[in-house]
Design a protein that fits this description.
The structure holds 2 protein chains of 2 kinds. Chain A has 11 helices and 7 strands. Chain A is an alpha/beta fold. Chain A has one domain: Rossmann fold. In chain A, strand 6, helix 9 and strand 7 form a beta-alpha-beta unit. The two termini of chain A are 22 Å apart. Chain B is an alpha/beta fold. Helices cover 40% and strands 18% of the residues of chain B. Classes of the chains: A alpha/beta, B alpha/beta. The complex binds thiamine diphosphate (TPP) and magnesium ion.
């Protein structure tokens, strides 16, 4: 476990480096929204939770990960590239004309992408479909969905929350990347959805609240989610938007930093902060 | 979205502001003297530019979060109580995500809700297809009673915003993200709902365009002239109601048409023009549009080139239309 933990922490750093590098190269995109989600995505792809095979992306028995907050595509692209779904250097073509590494995930063009997202609020419903299909097909794969916290403003999530509970989908885990910001400001101010865990509990879900930037807590929470029977699990993952480069974002006076790439002149500073792991 | 490289489309003309900026400024200015105007946002006011109104009038500005269905319902309620509701989000989200709400809560009762779709078309660039409204005009045209406007540049968008706010009843206004070439001046920018602007006269064919395709139509007309083909150019800024008189005159007097729009083939300006011309005075028509496909991420100008929205393609279509008329 200790060795595994060290390896995962190193992996998370390299995912963060990829996120920052590819968005700075692209000159647009959402690095801060990607950085908050890095521990969870790293744990899923490299911590033994997602059963998957990059050489066989449509393997029917694979576990599914749906990034409903599609603007955080860079964290997904980094994980997919480092898992071998496509050549690693392709991440540097992010958002460029002709590249399948698009601004938001496109399942028709990029292997490993489970859902085309970018219009917020739709991933959980898609995840329910996968989970129901597993039941119909008597397969034991697990479906993970990640939404943002702001994304929970979308009513479709709550329609989906009720449905997942109705079907008792214990093969479905929702992770809410609770980074406390959305596009125009603090999530509590734009539209307060607190208590998120209380709402999911009320809908009939098993809920956990964890520090989602602490790899150990993430691993434990995903283990626990796998053990739940008869109901879906929601992990409210408390994170920081821009985790890994928070000092730099504070210096720049913007700890939301929504939808902005780091200017090239700050790239080295960002990479140094990621490497130092503050 | 919020952070993607800004800047303007490539052009030999003088670049003006993006049409979303022009809308934001006009709303801010007109809102000053019109206390009945309220704005509802879906967490994108810094993208759609309604934040400029919001900062001046926080008491008449409501951010309901990322919840377009709820957003449209709230705007309908405000309008039903006598307000002029202005709502703005990405064209793709406000039309597609809340279509049933637009249909039932706004169009059916004919409420005074002004729906503004920003980030229209593929010229938003890098964010890719999920964020590109390429079917919005078709959907808006399918809402009974809606006026549908697609202005071409900064000044005409300001005039369109004024016309939209003065009009009683539901309106869809389409605006875009990049800075676009100037076509009108403050004084020449007339925007009369349902009345096309003739920007150039010609006798061999008529190019009917709206949005960013207007400046490209003018570029194409200039190029065609040097090849001996005289093209009339109509800025068909209102798709619904369409200017039947201008289309009848164009069909009669020039005998061939090209329709250019930054939209899918189905249900947009091309469909409307064809429907009208087929009824009034059938002549050959050719089309320049996005056909039946999603676009992708890329630099705006590169995407316009890749998906065939160029002056060159308009020129080719013009020659084909003229040839069909002779044949
Ligand atoms: C339906 C829809 N409406 C609006 C947007 C524009 N948008 C993109 S990201 C974002 C904020 C998302 O906030 P959150 O879910 O908290 O994600 P974070 O970036 O904080 O991780 C918004 C409003 C969108 N992509 N989809
Ligand atoms: Mg958030």
């Amino acid at each position: 476990m200790a060795n595994n933990l060290d390896a995962l922490l190193a992996r998370a750093k390299s995912i963060r480096e990829d996120i920052v590098r590819m968005t700075t190269e692209a000159g647009s995109g959402h690095p801060s929204s990607s950085l908050s989600a890095t521990e969870v995505v790293t744990a899923l792809y490299f911590g033994g939770f997602l059963r998957h095979d990059s050489k066989n992306p449509h393997w029917p028995d694979r576990d599914r990960f749906i990034l409903s907050k599609g603007h955080a595509a860079p964290v997904l692209y980094a994980a997919l590239a480092q898992s071998g779904y496509f050549p690693h250097d392709e991440i540097m073509t992010l958002r460029k004309t002709g590249s399948p590494v698009e601004g938001h995930p496109n399942m028709k063009r990029l292997p490993g992408v489970e859902a085309s997202t970018g219009s917020l609020g739709q991933g959980l419903s898609i995840g329910i479909g996968h989970a129901l299909a597993a039941r119909v097909d008597r397969k034991d794969y697990h479906t993970y969905v990640m939404t943002g916290d702001g994304e929970l403003d979308e009513g479709q999530n709550w329609e989906a929350a009720a449905a997942a509970a109705k079907f008792g989908l214990d093969n479905l885990t929702l992770i809410v990347d609770r980074n406390h910001f959305q596009q125009t400001g603090p999530a509590e101010e734009v539209l307060n959805m607190d208590p998120i865990d209380g709402k999911f509990t009320a809908f009939g879900w098993k809920t956990q609240v964890i520090n989602g930037n602490d790899m150990r807590e993430v691993l434990t929470a995903l283990d626990r989610a796998n053990a739940v029977k008869g109901m879906p699990t929601c992990i409210v993952s408390l994170t920081h938007k821009g985790q890994g480069i928070l000092n730099l974002l504070r210096k720049l006076g913007d700890t939301n930093f929504h939808g902005k790439p780091l200017p090239l002149k700050y790239l080295d500073e960002a990479l140094a902060e990621i490497a130092a792991g503050v | 979205m919020a952070g993607a490289s800004s800047g303007g489309l490539q052009t030999k003309r003088e670049l003006g502001k993006a049409t979303r900026d022009a809308f934001g400024r006009a709303l801010e200015a007109i809102g000053e003297n019109h206390p009945e105007i309220v704005v509802v946002d879906g967490d994108v006011s810094n993208s759609t530019r309604t934040e400029w109104f919001g900062k001046k009038h926080p008491d008449r500005f409501f951010n309901v979060g990322i919840a377009e269905s709820n957003l449209v319902g709230v705007a309908a309620g405000l309008a039903a109580s006598g307000k002029t509701s202005v709502i703005a989000s990405f064209a793709a989200f406000i039309t597609c995500n809340a279509y049933d709400q637009l249909r039932m809560s706004v169009a059916y009762p004919g409420l005074n809700v002004k729906v503004v779709g920003s980030h229209a078309g593929i010229s938003i660039g890098e964010d890719g297809a999920s964020q590109m409204g390429v079917e919005d005009v078709s959907l808006a045209c399918s809402l009974p009673g809606f006026v549908v406007m697609v202005p071409a540049d900064e000044e005409s968008t300001k005039a369109a915003t004024k016309a939209m706010l003065e009009h009683q009843g539901p309106v869809y206004l389409r605006v875009g993200r990049p800075d676009v070439p100037k076509i009108y001046t403050v004084s020449s920018a007339s925007f009369q709902i349902g009345k096309a602007n003739k920007l150039r006269d010609g006798s061999d064919l008529t190019i009917v365009a709206n949005g960013i395709m207007v400046s490209l139509a003018l570029d194409a007309a200039e190029a065609l002239e040097s090849q001996g083909i005289k093209a009339r150019v109509l800025d068909m800024h209102t798709v619904k109601p369409i200017d039947r008189d201008a289309l009848l005159a164009a069909a009669r007097e020039t005998g061939a048409l090209v329709v250019a729009e930054e939209h899918l083939a189905h249900g947009g300006l091309g469909s409307s023009v064809a429907y009208t011309v087929a009824e009034l005075h059938p002549v050959p028509i050719r089309y320049v549009n996005l056909l039946d496909q999603f676009a992708e991420s890329g630099a705006p100008d590169e995407l316009l080139e890749k998906f065939g929205l160029t002056a060159g393609k308009i020129g080719e279509a013009a020659k084909a239309a003229v040839a069909a008329k002779k044949g």
